[in-house]
Amino acid sequence: MSTALKDLNGTYTIDPAHSELGFVARHAMVTKVRGSFKDIEGTATSGAGLSDAKIDITIQVASVDTRDENRDGHLRTGDFFEVEKFPTMTFHSTDVTAVDDDTLRVVGDLTIKETTKSVTIDFDYNGSATDPFGNERVGFEGSTTITRSDYGINFNAALETGGVLVSDKITLQIEISAIKQA
Q1: What is the mean pLDDT of the chain?
Q2: Among 123, 2, 144, CA closest to 53
Q3: How many domains does the chain have?
Q4: What confidence tier does 1 reach under pLDDT thresholds 50, 70, 90?
Q5: Residue 134's domain is classified under what CATH number?
Q6: Can you give the pTM of this predicted structure?
Q7: Cβ-contact 179, 137 below 8 angstroms
Q8: Which residue range forms the structural domain that includes residue 115?
Q9: What is the DSSP track for 95-150?
């Protein structure tokens, strides 16, 4: 039985095995590279209604995976994420509202490499279900676009044909499965 978005309350924990924080970047101006972070954790808490809702997420940046170990290694260096100095990215909500019965607007602070910027993400509510283990699950998916140079991620290379190797605009794609805690 599906719970309405307005009826969600309690504490939910992200199920990392069934959730993904993905990203898409334009490469060499002609194609897209997709990747994700394998190690994410977080919680969402709300009382009656969404007025007091809080969402906190931590991403282990070293878990980046683009299906190319050389590229992943480069992303971990100072050219991009500098994971030895900045091992995590975080997101902390500042406002959570229901746009309609199926859309949750989340505004919050995204911190990458000690730089914090406000982002807005509209999440489609995919409903709730009780899984075979008796867990109440909810599902959401959404996306937003950020500018990586705003976070001090400036590496690039000019192309002979014009343009650059890596786009400054990055699309974040988020799919969340969360389990309600007792």
Answers
A1: 91
A2: 123
A3: 1
A4: very low
A5: 2.40.128.110
A6: 0.92
A7: yes
A8: 5-180
A9: EEEEEETTEEEEEEEEEETTEEEEEEEEEEEEEEEE-TTS-EEEEEEEEEEEEGGG
